[in-house]
Amino acid sequence: MAKKSDEVCGFLPKIDAQSPQGTLGRLKLSDLKPTQNAVGMDEVNVKVAKIKEKSDSALEDYLLPRTVPVIIGNGGQFYLIDHHHLSVSLWRAKGDMEVPVLVTRNWNSIAGKHFWKTMAANNWVYPFDAMGAGPNNPSTLKQHVKDLDNDLYRSLSWLVREGYGYVKDPNNAIFAEFKWGSFFRTRVIFAEQLTCKKNCMEMTLEDIRQADPDDYDEKIGWARYLASSPEAAGLPGFVGRSG
Questions:
Q1: What's the CATH code, domain 22-149?
Q2: The pTM is what?
Q3: Which residues belong to CATH 3.90.1530.10 in the chain?
Q4: Which one of 29, 60, 96, 144 is most buried, by most CB atoms within 10 A?
């Protein structure tokens, strides 16, 4: 018999404020508080389409190797420090389902500025908005994965990585794509961004590709060139040019 969506990963224990570090369990998506304000919606849209095609048993198999790492702190709240794109994609595809999580740290005794200073010291918070402005007070962080904004340059960094413009460095993986996004933000400007009249923040790369394919191809090629240039040396996963 097929599982119901709310039974996916139901064999895992429920995580609570007292769950110790290293505990593998489950939480609802609505329990997870983001540690960044934006995602690349192009990547999200691709993930949503793939998730919708999966049966619940296939979804369980898909999720278990992609366990969401969480920090418990600030009075029993659960902060995801990776897999924001996966989480918002699951919300859009399946609603408020339970997902497998791993307690990376239980800092429930730490709160307020002390909590956020500790998070920042571990590079587990990205206090910038979707336009790259910041750092901002962590009180401005989104409170739910469904509210994450769209960052076009986070999408661009993902697309360049998918084309092997750089690699995901396991030693510096968290927020690496945002660092690449910041690099591209001042160097790659699409014509559609200059003529946009409304809902500009919601614009995706796919929107640009459909509206102006020639400009899209030119700017994507330029981004890939920049990713291998000396200007990008020092960014996480930089591979440069061969030969």
A1: 3.90.1530.10
A2: 0.92
A3: 22-149
A4: 29
